[in-house]
């Protein structure tokens, strides 16, 4: 009887391992010139993209993001809304769960998506850098698990950002600036996947 129980547990464990994957990205943080509203400005971005690359994973996946800080500012990345179960050191707030990543240094964030599906976002979690360093997190259901609604024909993440007149572009993001101009940044997920991504089964 005990042998049967052990065998059953091994089967269950191997099935759950087979269903989860490791999703890896590299985020190269650096400054880049960006033009919006007829004005150009040097801002900090990830992988030369603004907004940054989409992190796409399935529920149960292990997400590994290596952040390489090539900018001249201290950096940290927060995975907004992602439950950090036994991985609090991967949450991202600088000076709270980690020291900031200094210029020329890197940090590997590792966390497992547990009990969550839907679209969240990631962003810098230090000083004003969060104004330009951000992007979507898309969490799909496990393979073989349907959406809790009719399957969509197509999915397009929308990122809402703020900008002000070109002469005063992003010097400070304030509530007033947010009210002045709300820019809609739309892009197809496939175009946003600049981060290196591999899946291991
Ligand atoms: Cu946040």
UniProtKB/TrEMBL annotation:
UniProt key word Signal: yes
Keyword annotations: Signal
Domain Plastocyanin-like stretches: 29-142
Top-level lineage group: Eukaryota
Signal peptide range in chain numbering: 1-20
Presence of the UniProt keyword Heme in the record: no
GO molecular function annotations of the record: copper ion binding; oxidoreductase activity
Database matches in InterPro entries: Cu-oxidase-like_N, Cu-oxidase_fam, Cupredoxin, CuRO_1_LCC
Family assignment from sequence similarity: Belongs to the multicopper oxidase family.
Name by which UniProt lists this protein: Plastocyanin-like domain-containing protein
Organism, as annotated: Aegilops tauschii subsp. strangulata
Top-level taxonomy: Eukaryota, Viridiplantae, Streptophyta, Embryophyta, Tracheophyta
């Amino acid at each position: 009887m005990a042998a049967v129980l052990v065998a059953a547990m091994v089967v269950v464990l191997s099935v759950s391992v087979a269903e989860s994957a490791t999703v890896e990205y590299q985020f190269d943080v650096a400054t880049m010139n960006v033009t919006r509203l007829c004005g150009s400005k040097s801002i900090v971005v990830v992988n030369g993209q603004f907004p940054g690359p989409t992190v796409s994973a399935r529920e149960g996946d292990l997400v590994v993001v290596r952040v390489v800080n090539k900018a001249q500012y201290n950096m940290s990345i927060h995975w907004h809304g992602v439950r950090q179960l036994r991985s609090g050191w991967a949450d991202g707030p600088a000076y709270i769960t980690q020291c900031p990543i200094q210029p020329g240094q890197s940090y590997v964030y590792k966390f497992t998506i547990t009990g969550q599906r839907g679209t969240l976002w990631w962003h810098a979690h230090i000083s004003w850098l969060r104004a330009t360093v951000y992007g979507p997190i898309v969490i799909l259901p496990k393979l073989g698990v349907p959406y809790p609604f009719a399957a969509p024909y197509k999915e397009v993440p929308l990122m809402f950002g703020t900008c002000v007149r070109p002469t005063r572009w992003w010097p400070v993001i304030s509530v007033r600036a947010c009210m002045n101009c709300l820019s809609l940044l739309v892009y197809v997920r496939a175009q946003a996947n600049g981060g290196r991504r591999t899946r291991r089964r």
